[in-house]
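In practice, a research group might receive sequence data for several interacting partners and want a quick structural hypothesis before committing to experiments. The following worked case mirrors that situation: the sequences arrive first, and a predicted assembly follows.
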Amino acid sequence: DQQVKQNSPSLSVQEGRISILNCDYTNSMFDYFLWYKKYPAEGPTFLISISSIKDKNEDGRFTVFLNKSAKHLSLHIVPSQPGDSAVYFCAASFTGTASKLTFGTGTRLQVTL
Amino acid sequence: KAGVTQTPRYLIKTRGQQVTLSCSPISGHRSVSWYQQTPGQGLQFLFEYFSETQRNKGNFPGRFSGRQFSNSRSEMNVSTLELGDSALYLCASSLMGTGNEKLFFGSGTQLSVL
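A structural hypothesis for the assembly, expressed as tokens:
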């Protein structure tokens, strides 16, 4: 039972354009959401997070939007750069259990020149 | 400050064998958690250790076990290996593993079971 879903396995975007990565979840008890980025042969690194009391969080070129009624979140990267090419994982947790994340299956982003 | 270190980076084993993976967390971090990454399944939570005690556990069979030492270093053991255990095993650490702390991941151990 996949509680966090990333339905697009891959996405290709031109440099300078916006990248939008989507994530859906089924468990309405999740109250904290994160995005991690993973390069080949490296572990995932934290990118940005959002609490369920907010609907938007911004950090430089990265913005995460949360739509609780739709159980949907998205990551926007503007502008996209070649160095953003990586696999992006959406994750969810319950506040207080930071170590037990439920991850999606990942979306591979390719930023082309 | 040094990151999370996992050894070995690669392992090849045969079915029925057992394997032990090691993880050294970031200095000062007391929570260590383990994840399995397989193609198509994303990262799945195995278990978490804090102060040498297993605090949380995922939905994996008893063949998967772990422990944590007094210096917070952790080991994970898989017994009676099956082909389906082939995966990237990732270790993550955080200060206390509570609240909304960030997890810091190691580069993983790639296990191949033949």
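Before designing any experiment, note the following. The mean pLDDT of chain B is 95. The interface with chain A takes residues 4, 31, 33, 35, 40-45, 48, 50, 55-56, 58, 90, 92, 94, 96-108 of chain B (CB under 8 Å).
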